[in-house]
Specification:
Blueprint (H helix, E strand, L loop, with lengths): L20 E7 L2 E8 L4 E5 L10 H7 L4 E5 L16 H12 L4 E5 L3 H10 L13 H10 L6
Parallel strand pairs: 3-4, 3-5
Antiparallel strand pairs: 1-2, 2-4
Helix pairs in contact: 1-4, 2-3
């Protein structure tokens, strides 16, 4: 089976594959697949409704040298379990951040915008601009959005 089809990112996509940590995060009624790499200010990537975490391969590779980059498969996508019980996408996103030890993160997303908006409103302690005077998370989000071939 093709490793990318099995949910593993291609080696070249995540930079140094030894630095990409993949794991299941237990959440009420399911499990989410999450990956993270790098160190520094945290940047979390939330995928579109027609994709999974792999849509961020290029951005993960480009930013993992300067940031703690995190991506995950939302319920029903990629390697995560399907939604079988009522759940909160906001709580799921928070569980991924907690499990990665990220604390607070800049959020980069597309298509599933309500997840980002709701998280910013309901969990502002975890998602939003970094500390005052330090715009690295915002700069990472801009850099990710402008990567060649970015989505």
């Amino acid at each position: 089976m093709n490793p990318a089809a099995a949910g593993s990112p291609p080696a070249e996509a995540a930079g140094d594959p030894a630095r990409l940590a993949g794991l299941f995060v237990d959440v009420p009624g399911g499990r989410l697949w999450a990956e993270h790499a790098g160190s520094g200010p945290a940047v979390l990537f939330a995928h579109a409704a027609i994709a999974d975490r792999r849509m961020w391969d290029e951005q993960m590779a480009a930013l993992s040298g300067r940031y703690h980059v995190i991506r995950y498969d939302q319920r029903g996508f990629g390697r995560s379990s399907p939604p079988e019980v009522p759940y909160s996408p906001v709580a799921d996103l928070g569980a991924v951040l907690d499990h990665a030890g990220a604390g607070r993160a800049a959020l980069v997303g597309c298509s599933l915008a309500p997840v980002g908006t709701d998280t910013r409103l309901l969990r502002s302690d975890q998602v939003g601009p970094p500390d005052a005077g330090r715009n690295r998370g915002r700069q990472a989000a801009r850099a990710a959005a402008h990567q060649p071939g970015g989505r």
